[in-house]
Amino acid sequence: MRKFKSIDPSSAATFGSELRRAREERRETLVNISKRTGIHFGQLSRFEAGDFKVVSANLQKYANFLRIPSPEADDNVIAQFQRYAARSPQHHAACKLIVEALEKLG
């Protein structure tokens, strides 16, 4: 039996919002993505609502379809930083300030 990484409710809600934002930016519908990925649109909707407790194969598949690093990559600080930078122009600007501050540290 395959084990999946657990995810806390707050992180699930945040990641679900990222999924929805990415889908809406691409002007995709849940039904269309369901047809293209083979994942039931109801499950896609639950993912976007943050209604999941583990990073399942279907969640990873959906994240890959939208080209978003899945929470499975959260152990990787670089992937986590990239996810934050991609959230919005404000997040990107904040990440840029962090990088500039780190560069000043030497």
Automatic annotation (TrEMBL):
Source taxon at top rank: Bacteria
InterPro entries registered for this protein in UniProt: Cro/C1-type_HTH, Lambda_DNA-bd_dom_sf
Annotated GO MF terms: DNA binding
UniProt cross-references to Pfam families, sorted A to Z: HTH_25
Name under which the protein is recorded: XRE family transcriptional regulator
Biological source species: Massilia cavernae
Domain HTH cro/C1-type: 19-73
Database matches in Gene3D superfamilies: lambda repressor-like DNA-binding domains
